[in-house]
Design a protein that fits this description.
Structural class: alpha/beta
Largest sheet: 5 strands, mixed, barrel
Helix content: 25-40%
CATH class: Alpha Beta
Radius of gyration: 16 Å
Number of helices: 6
Order of helices and strands: EHEHEHEHEHEEH
Length: about 180
C-alpha cells in the first residue's frame, strides 16, 4: 500500500499508476450530481466557487446522517459516470487533481484526466459503513439545501483506494479484465 496525503499535487498524481493500492489521509470534498451542476454553472458564468478545489480531491458520495456519537453516517462511493458530463470542465477550471468514485469513466473524462494531470480512484462500493470509519471529521461547506448531496469537507485517515485511471490514461477497468482473459 502506498501512503498518500493531501494536498494532492500534480507530482503526487504523476507518481501513481493504474492498479496501485493507496491509503489516503487528509482533506477531501464531497460532490455528487446536483453539486456538480451548480459548480459548473458558476464556472460557466465566471463566478467564484464556494470551495477552492486546487490540488484537492472530490469524493462522489452522499453521506447519510451521522448516528449519535459518530462523525458521519455511511459514506460509500456513488456511480461516477453520472458526473461525466461535468468532469472535463471542472478539471480544466479548478486545478482538481483527484477524483474518488466507482465505475469506469467515458472517453472525454479519460482525455481530461490526461490533459489536466488528474487521477481517478476507485473506492469499494457497498462498503459505505466501513469507509465512514476512516472519516474523522465532516463539515458542511456549501449547498446545505441539497441535503446529502451538499458539499462536505471531510478529514480522512487511512482511507483505502485503488488507482483506477492514472493521469496517463492507463485504465484498470480495461487492463484488469484483460489480464484474466483466456484466449
Amino acid at each position: 500500500m502506498i501512503q498518500i496525503s493531501t494536498p494532492f499535487t500534480t507530482e503526487l498524481s504523476g507518481s501513481l499508476h493504474a492498479g496501485d493500492q493507496v491509503i489516503l489521509s487528509g482533506t477531501i470534498y464531497t460532490a455528487r450530481d446536483a453539486a456538480h451542476k451548480r459548480l459548473t454553472s458558476l464556472i460557466e458564468k465566471s463566478l467564484p466557487l464556494p470551495v477552492d478545489l486546487s490540488e484537492s480531491m472530490l469524493y462522489y458520495t452522499g453521506p447519510t446522517p451521522a448516528r449519535p456519537g459518530k462523525v458521519i453516517g455511511s459514506a460509500g462511493p456513488t456511480t461516477s459516470s453520472r458526473m461525466d458530463k461535468y468532469t472535463p470542465l471542472l478539471l480544466e477550471k479548478t486545478g482538481l487533481k483527484g477524483i474518488i468514485g466507482k465505475g469506469d469513466r467515458n472517453d472525454a473524462v479519460i482525455a481530461a484526466l490526461k490533459r489536466y494531470q488528474c487521477t481517478y480512484f476507485a473506492a469499494l462500493g457497498g462498503a459505505g459503513a466501513l469507509l465512514s470509519k476512516c472519516i474523522v471529521k465532516s463539515e458542511l461547506v456549501a449547498y446545505e439545501d441539497l441535503g446529502p448531496e451538499a458539499i462536505y469537507k471531510l478529514e480522512v485517515r487511512n482511507f483505502p483506494l485503488i488507482v483506477a485511471i492514472d493521469q496517463n490514461g492507463n485504465n484498470l477497468f480495461k487492463s484488469g479484465p484483460a489480464e484474466y482473459r483466456i484466449n
